[in-house]
Amino acid sequence: MEPKLAVFIDFENVERGIEEAGLGRFQVELVLGRLREKGKVIVSRAYADWGRYATYKFDFQDHGIDLIELPSRRKGQKNMADIKMVVDALDYAWKWSYLDSFVIVSGDSDFTPLISKLREYNRFVMGMGVRKSTSTLIADTCDEFVYYDDLVKLKEKQRERRRIDDDPTQTFALLLETVDAMKASHEVLLSSMVKQTMLRKKPDFDERALGFRTFKRLLETARDKGLIGLVRDERSGTYRIVEPDEGAPAALVKSVRSERSAGGLPPDAGAA
User: Fold this and answer.
1) Any idea where the domains of the chain sit in the sequence?
2) Which pTM value belongs to this model?
3) Same fold flag, 4-156 and 163-257
4) Class of the 4-156 domain?
5) Can you give the chain as a three-state secondary structure string?
6) What CATH architecture does domain 163-257 belong to?
7) Could you report the per-residue pLDDT of 80-116, keeping only the tens digit for each?
């Protein structure tokens, strides 16, 4: 059963850290892309004085994130956004037992008690923040912590992508990116699990639009290119995705992983 995530973003803390680190404009799609590798995002809320960050409003709304409007704190007053985030997170943990994973996007150590309490409630807690402005205390308290800087670096290594249905090569890049991410938390990668994760990362993904009659045919084409290995899973009767055979063309794998490959699909890629 796929994890169900509740995401709470302390935007002012993260944006301030990004500005200090010189990481450019906050890219919400990087955050959600990583989280969709982990599970299904059910709740997503961002807290800030949005009058000060009006240029970000449409970015967040376009990604389905609820904007919680709070005034900036006055001198000597506790940040209202912090308090509201804590109250909301605990409220969701109490009311909705199906939310098994909570994501706190902030580097502020003030959220450490919240994280500890969520873990007491048997919730998996993932944190995310900017490396230079993240307290080691909050990072060590989480079950898992991801640095936003690393997401930016990963994107910088990849060339700017076209839409997935404009260049079939991007399909294989998405496939390999998904498989690589899932290896860290799954011992067995069934084809159905991989497709679900690809859809979370790219909701408009459709193998039929690319000329493949089924997802199975897409996987078999990737195998024939030497990108992945496939074995039949006896229990489910479907494919398990494994490492390519030792004799696979490693150069091709490296090329597609870095998204520099210019090759397309063979003419009969969609054939049964």
Assistant:
1) 4-156, 163-257
2) 0.66
3) no
4) alpha beta
5) CCCEEEEEEEHHHHHHHHHHHCCCCCCHHHHHHHHHHHCEEEEEEEEECCCCCHHHHHHHHHCCCEEEECCCCCCCCCCHHHHHHHHHHHHHHHHCCCCCEEEEECCCHHHHHHHHHHHHCCCEEEEEECHHHCCHHHHHHCCEEEEHHHHHHHHHHCCCCCCCCCCHHHHHHHHHHHHHHHHCCCCCCEHHHHHHHHHHHCCCCCHHHHCCCCHHHHHHHHHHCCCCEEEECCCCCCEEEECCCCCCCHHHHHHHHCCCCCCCCCCCCCCC
6) 2-Layer Sandwich (3.30)
7) 778 899 999 999 999 999 999 999 999 999 999 999 9
